[in-house]
Structures are given as structure tokens and as C-alpha cells.
Description:
Blueprint: E1 19-23, E2 30-35, H1 39-42, H2 45-56, H3 61-68, H4 72-99
Antiparallel strand pairs: 1-2
Helix pairs in contact: 3-4
Amino acid sequence: MTEKKLPTTCPSCSASLHVVRLTCSACGSSVEGHFGLSLLARLDVDDQQLVLKLVKASGSLKDLASDYGVSYPTIRNRIDALIDRVKQLEKEILRQQKEDGHVR
């Protein structure tokens, strides 16, 4: 069975989704509340895989490029694009926290 991807945006209005309930698959206990998703969880699956591969490559873009079978400039461009998306997500998270009253 394929694991389902956690949706991060509302299919109706594209606003950020929040986790409301967590349930233990072993005993059925559950916790309810308003839980935000981490920045990494908000990245798409391809970006999450890129981050994991970068960590496994000990931060070596040369090794990462080799793993993907692309040139160093290609992987550098992909990392730069990921950095831009991370910065944008940080802004969105901060804006949401301000709207929710968690940051002044």
C-alpha cells in the first residue's frame, strides 16, 4: 500500500492546512489541538527528497549532483530554487503566526 502524501494546502481556497488530530495506530488514543506543520513538511515531496539526499551526502553538492546524474551547476540551481522556496515558506509561516496571534 502506498503511503498517502500529507496535504498542506486547502483544496478549496489554497490556505495552509493545520493538523487537528493525531491518533495512535497501536492503541487508538488521540490528541486534538491546533498543530502547525513544520517547514520541511510543507515542502513538496521532491524538495523533501532533495533535502534528505543533501544531508546524506554530508552537504556535498558534488556528491548530490552525482547521485542525481546531473552537473554541478544544475544541482546548484536546484538548491538555489529550494532556498528561495524555503525563504518564501518562512515568510508565510511568520505571517500565519502573526495572524494567529502567536508572534507580535
